[in-house]
Specification:
Glucose Permease (Domain IIA); globular; 27% strand; single chain; 3 helices; mainly beta; 3-stranded antiparallel beta sheet
């Protein structure tokens, strides 16, 4: 239970079987589960600014599993998005910030980045499973490599990067960090070629 709480505090997604706390299990009840008010965190419900300037992996990787927020703090759900990425794929910072954690949790490599100028409390993203090349305290810019996707530790059927987003202890949709121009693929466009005569040579 302590390990699960630690992973949740870091913003690390748990497998469904670990994320759910069965009825009657030891441990604190989910806030609001007994009718008590859920403690408010100042700024936790602030809108998510589209500060992303790059995808964590690739250019526009397939989303293999979407964000599915749990109904309660310890309930089932998917606390992030999964992006298709083969082992060894470079993992990049999407926005300016600093590395707040780089290490292993429950056998998985995890990198967390606190994003600058995103409010109080600031937004925090997490990547796993990642073999970190960045260290705690490193300042990062959009596109900086912070690690590579590990071949083991993924909860996906195929290799993927799990990307999470939190403000304080509230899980948010990581895709909301990306502006519309990065989210959609534009149609292919052929540009004119200058200086080449049209038609067959005469």
């Amino acid at each position: 239970m302590l390990l699960g709480l630690t992973m949740i505090a870091l913003g690390i997604a748990l497998p469904a079987a670990e994320a759910a706390v069965p009825e009657g299990a030891d441990g604190p009840p989910a806030p609001g589960a007994d009718g008590s008010p859920v403690p408010a965190v100042p700024g936790a419900d602030a809108p998510v600014p589209a500060v992303g300037r790059a995808w964590p992996v690739g250019v526009r990787p397939p989303v293999t599993r979407s964000w599915d927020p749990p109904a309660t703090e310890y309930g089932r759900g998917h606390r992030g998005v999964d992006l298709a990425a083969p082992p060894g794929t470079p993992v990049r910072a999407i926005a300016p910030g600093h590395v707040s954690f780089a290490g292993r949790v429950a056998g998985r490599g995890v990198v967390s980045i606190e994003l600058g100028s995103t409010g109080d409390p600031p937004l925090r993203i997490t990547y796993e499973p990642v073999r970190a090349t960045a260290k705690k305290g490193d300042e990062v810019a959009p596109g900086d490599i912070v690690g590579v996707v590990e071949p083991t530790g993924s909860h996906c059927q195929a290799s993927c990067l799990h990307w999470g987003l939190l403000r304080a202890d509230t899980y948010l949709d990581p895709l909301s960090l990306l502006p519309p121009g990065l989210l959609r693929r534009g149609p292919s466009r052929l540009l004119p070629v200058i200086g080449v005569p049209e038609g067959p040579p005469t």
